[in-house]
Amino acid sequence: MEMDMNVQEKKAGFFQRLKDFPSKLKDVVTKRVKNVLMFGKDDPRRIIHSMKVGVALTLVSLLYYVRPLYLSFGVSGMWAILTVVVVSEFTVGGTLSKGLNRGFATLTAGALGVGAVHLARFFGHQGEPIILGILVFSLGAAATFSRFFPKIKQRYDYGALIFVLTFSMVAISGYRTDEILVMAYQRLSTILIGGTVCILVSIFVCPVWAGEDLHKMVANNINKLANSLEGFEGEYFPLPEKISNETNSCVREYKSILTSKGIEDTLANLARWEPGHGRFRLRHPWKKYLKIAGLVRQCAFHFEILNGYVLSNYKAPEEFQNKIQEPIATMSREAGEALKAIAKSIKTMSKDTARVNAHIDNSKTAVGNLRIALKSSYPETDKDLLEIIPGVTMASILIEVVNCVEKISEAVEELSGLAHFKETLDPKILSAEIGQHQLLHRGTVKPVLDGDNGEEDTDSSPHVLINVHDEQPPATTGKNSLGVEKNIV
Amino acid sequence: MEMDMNVQEKKAGFFQRLKDFPSKLKDVVTKRVKNVLMFGKDDPRRIIHSMKVGVALTLVSLLYYVRPLYLSFGVSGMWAILTVVVVSEFTVGGTLSKGLNRGFATLTAGALGVGAVHLARFFGHQGEPIILGILVFSLGAAATFSRFFPKIKQRYDYGALIFVLTFSMVAISGYRTDEILVMAYQRLSTILIGGTVCILVSIFVCPVWAGEDLHKMVANNINKLANSLEGFEGEYFPLPEKISNETNSCVREYKSILTSKGIEDTLANLARWEPGHGRFRLRHPWKKYLKIAGLVRQCAFHFEILNGYVLSNYKAPEEFQNKIQEPIATMSREAGEALKAIAKSIKTMSKDTARVNAHIDNSKTAVGNLRIALKSSYPETDKDLLEIIPGVTMASILIEVVNCVEKISEAVEELSGLAHFKETLDPKILSAEIGQHQLLHRGTVKPVLDGDNGEEDTDSSPHVLINVHDEQPPATTGKNSLGVEKNIV
Questions:
Q1: Which residues, 6 or more positions from A81, have their beta carbon under 8 angstroms from its beta carbon?
Q2: CA–CA separation, A320 vs A341, rounded Å?
Q3: For B166, which of A75, A146, B109, B385 could close a Cys bridge (C-beta 3.0–4.6 Å)?
Q4: ipTM confidence score
């Protein structure tokens, strides 16, 4: 009886599932389609690239569809199709690199192959395959070995591959055909047609420049650092009313930089194949971007360690926190502003040294203030010393971050010279902007050191004004910063 | 006159250079050849791989040279050559992944292509190219778009490429030939022959397994960390008689780990295509290796920051240095030993939990001692506090490193369970080895805290013995470690 019930239940369940199947299928399909559309919307260039490949394919298929073209190229037209599929890369640099590599490798390997066939024919019908075999083996092995060399691997890997391919094909098929020259000519010309179609479509239909991508990526990474830096205060000294999840994502933005070296290297490598375009000339200093990216990554390493401290919730005593909060907040805010100015200067390709240096100087002054605050938070007992260690570590890693920001700014300065960044706008506008900027900052300078969180509107009080404008780096004017520090505390 | 002299001088210089040319050319060529040989010796598998490609090429060229084979396959034999050149990858995983992708993609795209040609023929001679064009455009664009999805890009990128290629070729050339089925059959069979030859050569002639490479790479990276950690003491507290350049390279060994993510991901991805081999079964937990590698990299980030401190030469006062040297030395040495034991356990695929845990416990004890040393180095003035900040930072980053080492050990423990590492040898041998080990260590425990660097032979004094053996992590036995601390200071 029980078994019968079971069977019946199973049957009912099966029919139910069968009934639900269409609606479930619909749900799954709708979800998938939505995902795909979202993915396309994320970067519409992906959709455009797919269309471009379709167009290039359609264009070369005319070699088959149009009778006069078919009569002159015959089945060799398929090499054009093969070339289009293989050479079509997302970026112009990728397409050019593959197209040129394929073209030159086919030309040289084709010529060598024809030579090899003629050489082998001297050795009679018996000796021909042996000579050809030896040549194919040795040249194939040598070219394959050459692909391991880093320099060749970086720029000519595909060329070496096509070299082996073409040489083997020409040499081996030369054994069975006498029309080797006609075949070689047809193949070479169709490959050139395919490659040219690809390159033209890639350059003239919504081009995606690897160089521009690298340029934007480096600027974006600097912006990410800036966001992480500016989010840091909120994370380490959370205000009671703020929900910590809000700033969370912002502070973690640096994460993607830790492992972006591979993409940057690839983009820089492809950018070198690209002709001048837009604001970039032919010999744009792409290697400098890699240097900047390296420094940015160095800075991100520091964040990774800092983040461990923020996450560990291993907080120092409140009194100590209060003492260091103000200089740390100023320091990270100003360093963040400097990074934002640097990123903007890269994005707009215009020099903005004055603004960047002003922010860096401000953050260095804050470093001086931080040192003074640390000095003044001399622990009363040995237990206190142990408790402030995490705070001290955090502070000195942040100081290192300010050094990193300075190095980044120097590297961008170098780039701006080599890449002929335009001089910045009207200096009057600039100074007005900086003034406004500092005014905005003044609003956020909270005299928390008094332990008074409620007093938010002190931007009109004169001593804070003096603080922002007259400060110099601590090394040169120790007395001044000491005075300022007394004003704040 | 002067001009004549100049011309004569130039001539003489030219002839001299012409004379020197052969010897210079010889020098350059010798140097190049030496370089190439060195490069080959560096990793002989490169030479073997090149030979393997040559052998595979020679094998498939028999399709042309042997008359009966040529009669059955004809010029389609060139697809076998093409397949061999393109599919031959350095690792077995790479070859399998490309070969299987190529095989399946050709099969499905070929079938679809034949279907498309038959469908198009319903629309008459006028409509045929239009229908074919639409189909090629839309399937080509769709498959190209699919290559952007991370999951497809990671495992089936090559398959999608070959899909577009084969479908376009079959569909387009189907317009001009009636023997499309014969053509498709010949092409598919030669591609299968080429792929099979490649895969067989790759697996049975000196195979290079991506999985084994990943396995070794992770173990080596852990060893590199250990070396950096053990070299750290010599770098930060250099003995006067030691030349600092000696340890330099050792401390920097971690550098390559910072950017090794790309290679690790690729190897793990290829390893999943490989059949069981040697000590690795079919479903070996390759993903766990990536987890371990991530933790190792996290640890390397800490070294990068530490290295900044060592490089900056921003030394703390000598008295403070002397106080923290002993626990820091023990801590880094023991953590290094733990890492070495972990690396060895991975390399030999045998569990060695007891030894690893013993070293980790020792290093944790040293962390406790370090905390005590820090506490006891309570600064006398506020100026002193500022001076010990770099030392404090360095110490607390090192403490984080010990935490990292513990996490690595836990991850490897997980791996050892999943990958069925064999249980370790005879426990008697192990305990004897550990005893010997600790005896060796005792010899290097220098009671520098007394400021007496000359007293090297104190390993027989009982209080140091107690120190090494009886200590527990400080959190549980604060009293004990305090007592020990009194003993030492």
A1: A57, A60, A61, A194, B165, B168, B169, B172
A2: 32
A3: B109
A4: 0.78
